Amino acid sequence: MTAPSGSFSFPTPTRIGPGVLKELPARLAALGVRKPLVVTDPGLLKAPAFGLLREVLGAAGEGSGWQVFSAVQPNPAEAEVVAAAAAYRDAGCDGVIAFGGGSALDAGKAVRLWVKRPDLTLASYDWQADWAGLAPCVAIPTTAGTGSEVGRSSVLVPAGEQAKRIVFQPNLLAQAVFLDPEVTVGLPPALTAATGADALTHCIEAFVEPSFQPLCDGIALEGVRLIVGALPRAFRDGKDLEARTHMLAAAAMGAVAFQKDLGVAHALAHPLSSLCGIHHGTANALVLPATMRFNSARKPGLYRRVGVSCGLDCLLMPPAEADRMTIMFLMAFLKRLGLADGLRVRGVKAELLDPLADMAFADPCHTTNPVPVTRDDLRRLYAECME
Question: Which end is more exposed in the chain, N or C (fewer Cβ atoms within 10 Å of the end residue's Cβ)?
Fold first, then answer.
């Protein structure tokens, strides 16, 4: 038997816990950042979370000690990142604070590429070029979902296109991360559920991705355990700081785990966001059970240890039965969070199934699924998820 081989690379200095945001000015000073550009979305400007950030940065003075770029939209477009880089240069900034959900974090990290090379386009981007010396970045998530704060990539929509593109670059990794549950307290229940489902999908898909990454596997399974315990609590009571802390940890863990890569659920979810406008976490939740059934039918036992992490007594069950119990548990779990509707209820029309399948098959995530999928498989999965 040939011994397995793999590679491991784990992320960046991270502070977690209630009130850690107060340490931000000291961390900025240590990074040599005197005038950061805060990259966020317009909805956050009047939210309590931004008030906490303003209070922490207030001594420097908005407009003089720090600047704000708040034009980031869901599924951030290349043009928004280009505009943020121009704002960075015009204001004489020397670092970035990426503040918000996955879109703001992705945009904030990516801004530094355009700061370094103003003539860059996504079409011309070469991840193997010299990207050393990017501006410092501090990442502060206001949701517990994508884990983008600990990621080495950004997901952007190129100019003139609808499909998302993953921009991978090891130097995109933030120099510091603050996971402060007080920042997430104001997150509405529906968004708490959707972002949490994203983190759950990351953990599950990363665990069953077939490459040899035992460190990631252990992190993924612990992430599942944390989410199953904490997400319903955070959904019911947004002020539950322990649950919020556990969810921030689990979201970051999911992103660390999917260094392995993801699978067919994400290949299906990405087009649902870019073509149909469905929140990414919601899209993952709506397709996850069907993809798990598809994978298990071809490779029984994939989800047995996921079930154990969910608290199920399925370790000694036959493989297919352990998978069935795990999938049924997760379906009920997502239903309690309001995430069990079919795609039709979410506005997806039957005539979109073929374009969606084409886009999903072009998405690289399905290539690292634990079992192979065809374009027709993807269309059938979309059809199964319609009701």
Answer: N
